[in-house]
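Hi P.,

Sorry for the delay on this. The queue was packed all week, but I finally got your sequence through. Input first:
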Amino acid sequence: MTVASPPSEALPHDEPIENALLGGRVRLLQARDGYRAGMDAALLAASVPARPGERVLEAGCGVGAVLTQIAARRSGVLLTGIERDAAAVDLGGRNVILNGLQDRMVVRHGDVAAGFAAPGLARFDWAVSNPPFFDDESALRAPSPARRGAWIADDGLAVWTRFLSDGVRDGGRIVIIHRADRLADLLALLGERCGSFAIRPIQPFADHAAKRVLIQAIRGGRAPLRLLPALILHDRNGAKHTPGTEAILRGEADIGF
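Then the structure:
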């Protein structure tokens, strides 16, 4: 659930917009133009049941929409975001302050393509990401320059899965939200170092095919793959979301694996 205030038309072109997430528990500054965090970020944040003291890494964190929501859901969790877009890093730092998270969240400038070793960080308990959906610009109408980085993975999906796999300790967990039609690719790439997969399809309606999947993988895991019941986002009774989805967006429910 997001509420924009004030209207973008009333703001200077370069002034960010502030949105309220999780029923107002999170305040998020986002660029007026370009990619805006929405449903995918909320679902990813709801899928990370990290415990106090555990460390969570996000690859391609943007302005911090996922991490700030994890922080609101999970007290005592330590959060680090890596983002290559300098403007997003600046807004991410402002969002850290806006939400009073200076003691447990940081947004760092860095490129996933450079590998996990580049930032010089110790391995994390969790690594999460909503990678760019496409690695072939011919597969879609060219996005606007301001949104290109969120949609196009210049170095391919393998760069993202390798960064995440390298970023967690043995037994650490990776959670990804992505297009359902890339599921086979994600399993193959993550399977080089990870296992114990749990997959939750995300369907727009109960009678529609899944368009997104949430995947949890464990580094070094050997348990059989589990295909979980789907999360249904909408029904046909006139409400915007199903009651379960609405509870997730308000921060009142989690998405378990």
